[in-house]
Write a structure and sequence with these properties.
- The structure holds 2 protein chains of 2 kinds.
- Helix content of chain A is 32%, strand content 23%.
- In chain A, the strands form 6 sheets. Chain A has a 7-stranded mixed beta sheet with strand order 8-9-10-1-11-19-12, with helices on both faces. Chain A has a 6-stranded mixed beta sheet with strand order 14-18-13-17-15-16.
- In chain A, helix 8 runs antiparallel to helix 10 and helix 14 runs antiparallel to helix 15.
- The longest helix of chain A has 22 residues.
- Chain A is globular, with a radius of gyration of 25 Å.
- The two termini of chain A are 36 Å apart.
- By secondary structure, chain B is mostly helical.
- In chain B, 77% of the residues lie in helices and 0% in strands.
- In chain B, helix 7 crosses helix 8 and helix 8 packs across helix 10.
- The chains are: A alpha+beta, B mainly alpha.
- At the A-B interface, helix 6 and helix 12 of A face helix 2, helix 3, helix 5, helix 7 and helix 11 of B.
């Protein structure tokens, strides 16, 4: 008797569940996707978030005028049409009509303009103000038109507007919610944040008010934060999650060997190099060439990174506007030639000393790579010392103006969505992020012209020239681009991952 | 009352701690504004963020604000998230306490059991076994032990979840891992004091009164070992709070330890300051409780 009633209760329950889902219209989102990430995003406010997992949430919970797909191509999202003025100082975008945020507030041109003005507001102090500094003001002459008034010509504005940093926030809700907005942003994207436990887990569910081209296919997306690599991998092994990000080199074989999961290795735009402080002996191009020839990139990638890298062929990583990126011959590993060059430059073995500063835990196997580089430089007769320091000290050291630095080079990874921003900030004379002190009037001129240029053909030519000068001048010891390693369960189909580690779920189905 | 007097005496201690914490945190390398602004930022952009974070204010003013935050929690906000630190701590403290207190209790129970077994079965195989386990428990670092537990109980046996803090089951492995050291310490302690006490005359009196060996053990012998155990417990609990960052990182539990470590890596000064001050407060309370318990258990230590 008991068994019968339990079974029938169960059957009734299933029937009720199925009917209720059948009652709702359209293709039903189904399946719960579970992801384990390695760091707590702390904020989903696109104007302050600086972690890939935060970008992933912003991509799905908010909408931008444009967005980047998994291959980093710009596609329209809220925008229907756009144009530059003749003098290039005004950029006008037409947006879709009748859109709303997930709480019902209208998403019209005024809301878009308000969102951008918040991004640019110095009182707010967004960490991306500099990235968008070409924009002076954003206005909304009518419900469907947004006008960007530029302070300088910038031909790369589409790319800037496609970044998740430029997704539209609900400024009214922000003002009401204060700091809580950064945990549960009110957006217009296909999903919304259903729940969040700080430092531990957060959950996305479909936004019932969403109308757009990237509808939610999943019932829920659950993220759990597990910083310890071993424990995070264990979650995939036990089947508690479907995706784990940041598989460390030592776990690659184990994950691949699992019956029901494998490692996905999308390219990363993260370009890892030793940025040389161009003073003293480092000013001599022969010394810099020798340093570059002394590094066995392939060997280090295989031996230390477990294969998670590709040797550098230009400064910006793959995915940084591939249509503008040019590549060159990889730097050979030639210690003999390196020693010759050093001798030509007037340095006997053991005569030249240098200090290298590296962080630990910031990039894949950074501390170990640093030690390997120290050995590589010592092998060609340089008295090289590696200083491996914590993040705070490392930030402090590399933030100093090059003239004040005591060390000779620091390990830094660079990844931003655009050629213009990356190269301008790193190589223009006197710009703060220019840690090398690189100053080349020819490049300065090219950079200014490249920023203002709207014609893609001419852009390609200009940036090609800039990349060539940088590659040949060797202001860095070029190393490699990191490769991402993501553990994915076989039942997950259609996962997309951008070169900046943002995950795309719009095509994901679970079997 | 004694307790109240002790608590009042703690206030100058905490005040000095607050001064030290405030001063030391300023010395931590790294500028929170620069770290938040990122490696591409210009000096001007970093300055704007510094202003907004209130970092350019003179030190006495910032210290006054720090003290104000203790009285009025809404004033103290994280430089990173802008949320009140009291809320951030309040969300995470229960997790840390569950693991620490749970570990202590489980450790006490297991340790007492092991200690009694060792004392009663001295020189036997069981005694040797427990001693070896005890030594292992004291020597094994939580980091390794934690991963071992995950590998055995989650990945291989599938009995428990591997990481996270979503359900009570998620706390079983962390508590177990954290309990090993106190269990080991208590075991050795209980064995030693039991052995010391077992031969004593007053126990013979109890036995001659007709009490069973077990009753003798429980009522007389163990009570005395408890006094020493309380002091050990106090120290152990302190160590567990301090070591919470490792347990929380390995098992993916959002607690105060991880909050502190994340705050240090981002130079989120206010969070670091308040979290350390809170740890100091806990240590003061633990010391007080330990003293009170010892006095209650052993009348000889009470003040005249």
């Amino acid at each position: 008797m008991k068994k019968f009633s339990v079974r029938s209760a169960l059957a009734l329950g299933i029937f009720a569940l199925m009917s209720s889902t059948a009652l709702a219209q359209g293709v039903q989102p189904s399946g719960v996707l579970k992801i384990a990430v390695g760091a707590d995003p702390e904020t989903f406010d696109p104007h302050f978030n600086d972690l890939p997992t935060g970008n992933t949430v912003d991509l799905h919970v908010l909408e931008g005028l444009f967005r980047l797909d998994a291959e980093n191509n710009v596609v329209k999202e809220l925008a229907t049409d756009y144009s530059f003025s003749d003098d290039g100082m005004t950029f006008t975008v037409k947006i879709k009509k009748g859109k709303t945020f997930s709480n019902g507030d209208p998403l019209d041109a005024k809301a878009v303009a308000a969102s951008f003005m918040r991004l640019l507001n110095p009182e707010v102090g967004s960490i991306y103000r500099g990235l968008y500094s070409s924009i002076k003001e954003v206005t909304a002459p009518d419900d469907e038109t947004v006008v960007f008034h530029l302070g300088e010509r910038n031909g790369h504005i589409l790319l800037l507007l496609a970044s998740t940093n430029a997704t539209i926030v609900n400024v009214t809700a922000l003002e009401k919610m204060g700091a809580e907005y950064s945990r549960k942003p009110v957006g217009s994207g296909p999903y919304m944040v259903d729940s969040i436990v700080g430092g531990e887990r957060y959950r996305l569910v479909p936004n019932p008010r969403y109308e757009g081209d990237f509808p939610a296919k999943l019932e829920a997306i659950e993220f759990v934060v597990v910083p310890e690599d071993g424990a995070r991998m264990a979650l995939l092994e036990t089947g508690e999650v479907d995706i784990v990000e940041r598989v460390p080199p030592e776990a690659l074989q184990t994950i691949d060997a699992l019956d029901e999961a494998s490692v996905m290795k999308p390219p990363s735009m993260f370009s890892i190099n030793m940025e040389i402080v161009l003073k003293g002996p480092m000013k001599d191009p022969r010394v810099r060439e020798a340093l570059n020839l002394a590094v066995d990139r392939e060997g280090m990638i295989e031996g230390i990174l477990g294969g998670l890298g590709t040797p550098s062929v230009t400064m910006p990583g793959p995915g940084t506007q591939n249509e503008l990126r040019v590549t060159f011959v990889p730097i050979p590993f030639d210690p003999a030639r390196a020693k010759e060059l050093l001798a030509q430059a007037g340095y006997a073995p053991g005569q030249l000393s240098l200090t290298m500063v590296c962080p630990t835990g910031r990039y894949i196997k950074d501390a170990q790579v640093c030690q390997a580089l120290q050995a590589s430089f010592q092998a060609i007769g340089i008295n090289a010392q590696a200083r491996i320091v914590d993040r705070g000290t490392w930030t402090q050291i590399v933030s100093q103006p090059p003239a004040q630095r005591d060390d000779d080079m620091a390990m830094l990874g660079r990844a931003t969505a655009g050629m213009d921003y990356t190269l301008y900030r790193l190589f223009r004379t006197g710009v703060s992020a220019n840690t090398t002190g690189y100053s080349n009037p020819e490049v300065d001129d090219l950079l200014t012209r490249g920023r203002a240029e709207t014609d893609p053909e001419k852009q390609k030519e200009i940036y090609g020239q800039i990349q060539k000068r940088i590659w040949e001048d060797r202001p860095f010891v070029f190393l490699w681009y990191q490769t991402q390693a993501i553990g994915v369960a076989d039942r997950v189909k259609g996962l997309g991952v951008q070169p900046n580690e943002t995950m795309h779920f719009d095509k994901v189905t679970l079997q | 009352m004694f307790a109240l007097r002790r608590l009042a005496a703690a206030i100058p201690t905490l005040f000095i701690v607050s001064l030290l914490v405030f001063w030391f945190v300023d010395l931590i390398p790294g500028d929170p504004a620069r770290i938040q602004a990122g490696p591409m930022a210009t000096t001007e952009e970093v300055e704007v963020i510094r202003e907004r974070m209130g970092l350019n204010r003179p030190a006495p003013e910032r210290y006054a604000r720090f003290l104000e935050g203790i009285v009025d929690p809404s004033v103290a906000v994280s430089l990173r998230t802008g949320r009140p630190i009291a809320v951030e701590i309040g969300e995470r403290l229960p997790n840390t306490l569950i693991v620490a207190i749970g570990g202590l209790i489980v450790g006490l129970l297991l340790g007492t059991l092991g200690g009694v077994v060792c004392a009663l079965r001295q020189g036997t195989f069981v005694d040797t076994l427990v001693t070896v386990l005890t030594l292992a428990g004291i020597s094994m670092p939580i980091y390794w032990l934690g991963l071992l537990c995950i590998w055995l109980f989650a990945v291989n046996l599938g009995w428990l979840p591997a990481a996270g803090a979503a359900t009570p089951a998620h706390f079983v492995l962390p508590i177990l891992a954290v309990a090993t050291r106190p269990a080991a310490m208590f075991s050795r302690l209980v064995t030693a004091s039991l052995l010391e006490v077992m031969g004593k005359d007053y126990l013979d009196t109890a036995r001659s009164k007709g009490l069973s060996e077990f009753q003798v053990l429980w009522r007389h012998a163990l009570r005395n070992s408890l006094i020493a155990a309380v002091s050990v417990a106090g120290v152990q609990f302190g160590a567990m709070l301090g070591g919470s960052v490792i347990t929380e990182t390995v098992f993916g539990i959002p607690g105060i330890g991880r909050l502190l470590v994340d705050a240090v890596s981002r130079a989120d000064y206010p969070v670091i300051q308040y979290a350390i001050l809170m740890f100091a407060f806990f240590f003061v309370v633990i010391n007080l409780v330990t003293d009170l318990l010892t006095q209650w258990l052993d009348p000889r230590t009470r003040a005249a």
